[in-house]
Fold these 4 entries.
Entry 1:
Amino acid sequence: MPKGFDTVIGDGGTKLSGGQRQLLSIARGLLRNTKIFLLDEINSNIDGLTERNIVQTVFRLSQNHTVIMATHRATTIMQIPRIIVICDVKNVAEGTHEKLLNECMTYKELFEKIDSN
């Protein structure tokens, strides 16, 4: 941003792309340092390199904070250290990507649908 925190954005200032708005929202959440982060499709409007950086930051956060992330991007899912599969409001299974692929048919079917897109 041209003037850092003093940059005016939005209608009267600098126009932001969808990805820039998304990154700004994530940054605002990080600055608040809350105990629980709810992240829904945080990587929908960003490039692969930025996605990897965000995912690494989220993993560091998850060591001291509760992070709940919803995503449909296979590359992100495969990096998540603990996945909880919920189906019909029930906790079906939890574990790593590899464990769930081998032991949870619901997860395997969902992941195959995502991965084929």
Note: Strands lie at 36-40, 66-70, 83-87, 90-95.
Entry 2:
Amino acid sequence: MKILLACQQSPHRYPIPAYGFWRTYFVEGLREAGHEVVEVEGADWARGLIPLTPADLRRWRDETWSRTLDTIRANPDLDFFLGYLYPRQIEYSAIRELQRLGLPAVNFFCDNVREYRRLPGDFAPFDLHWVPEHAALPMYAARGWPALFAPMPCWVAPARRHVPEHEDQVVSFIGRRDPLRAALLAAAAEADLPLIISGGGWVPAVTPALPPPSPTLMARLDDWIDFYRRQGFGPAWQRLTSRRAAAPRETRFDFLPYLRPEPGDEAYAAILRRSAVTLGINRYPQLGVEGDAEPTYSRLRDLEAPMLGACYLTEWAPELPQLYDLGREIEVYRNAGELIGLAQALLADPARRRALRTAGLRRAHADHSVGATVGRIIARLGLG
């Protein structure tokens, strides 16, 4: 298949959460499966994610989608369009035009359940939605939009697709700090697990930051309206009237002895592969819910770690029983006590660690590759 791909490609590095790896995962995964990838020359897709004035965003959309349609006209043998696009990046009329030109349009989007209670209408024009969260499927069904449940797109270089010969006797977590992760990892550290942590937000600032200026009434109103549009009336009203802060309480635990430098790409893969136990955390905040009752959904790490041959211990999420044989290919916990107990048991059992690594790696590459998912998309679109 010849696929037009738009997945946050950019020649620039913007001060927003990491996005450059998506191009690698999509492009290499598609090429490995034998597909031809076409990209929009000169398009800066990630620019549509940074704060822009309404006029600048309009200009960006006009320029980017004009380039996209020109690319389609120059490649009449394209089979379909595959995007990873946020609502603000989508131009309804352009999607309709590419469909008029004979190109089905598919969009991948993750974090549906964390970002929305009701999906925004911007997603409406796509022929198919690639959805990695099981709990989001009813949201698409409620809108009458066709959706395909499939894991996150992930690709690992062939040289890393084996179980490592040597391990470091540590329990590792890589990821940005948030209060839920901090509370869980504080419990793990207090249980004397050989924990190492890296990622953004864990290292305390040398100089205390000045408190941000109080937002104006209009800014607070705009923020509430945006929250209402994403989450619906009930959560928005609760946020407006509740005395509980929107963010979970932050732990005072001192993580400094457990911190390691934030890794680059090579170090990231090495830590996941070589740690005796690699942790995943899948919970996310929801108003009125705290602790182990917080909802969960499967993250990209649930693909990356097994594909790298990690001994992977992650938080249970509703998608995981559909992706893995739990307890044989990966191990899962539901609360801090289970995390600690399972990590201790795995640290004491090298043979079981190796068995998990081998089975998880085999399953992830056999069933959860980009090529496997795109094969299902092709069948669903009737292109095969």
Note: Confidence is low (pLDDT under 50) at residues 206-215, 217-246.
Entry 3:
Amino acid sequence: DLIVRTGGWGHLAADEGSGYWVGQQILRAIIRAEDGRTNKPTYLKTLLFEKLQVTNIEQLLAWVYHPEFTNAQMASISSILSDAIERGDETAIHIAKSAAKELSILAITVLEKIQYTGEVFTLYMNGGILRNHIVIKDLFQQYVSTKYPNISFELCHDAPIQYILKRALSEVNKVNK
């Protein structure tokens, strides 16, 4: 059996497109704007300050650098992205496009590794970013479909291992009938 792996190497090595990564991109965008390194206004700061109930950048950084700060907390920052996109925030839209692009590169790389030749195929999507951010999910599908138009997409609603087991049992049952 062929097993291929691409991505998911963890937040310290390479986890592009993940909730943690999106949260980090939001935080970096807010800090760049605070520093004056960008002239683009962003609503992300207002949304994050409201979410965390902080009033200034120092309080935000105290939250981030708290000894008990977790990866899940960084990922939770991503929850403000959709609201900012709905408000037309260019920075948020750029982050969403970047996340979708990174995730599509992962999927396309796997398809290339398995020598996918373009037949009708269902790609099963999983992960909080694809489940909770319609814009990222739609862009991801668009990017993958541009290269591989015969792929359809289905969103997994179970944990990855549970979904794999259900699919395997379904295939076994088909063979045994």
Note: The first helix runs from residue 19 to 35.
Entry 4:
Amino acid sequence: MEIGVFGSYVRGEQRVDSDIDILVEFEKGYKTFDNYMELKFFLEEILTSKIDLVIKTAIRDEIKQNILSEVIYA
């Protein structure tokens, strides 16, 4: 699995009510709804914040370059 953060937290523009934008690429065969939701809930619990979990292969072409240019991978 590849995972990284992007968006307002990377740019230092987050607010108190900001969610954390997380980009994820699951290993082949592991991209299921259950795995997605399990990861989302796990991250929300440990980070105590709302998570916007984005699957790398599902990014719209119009915004893909912006996201990929700022993502910081774990």
Note: DSSP finds three helices and four strands in the chain.
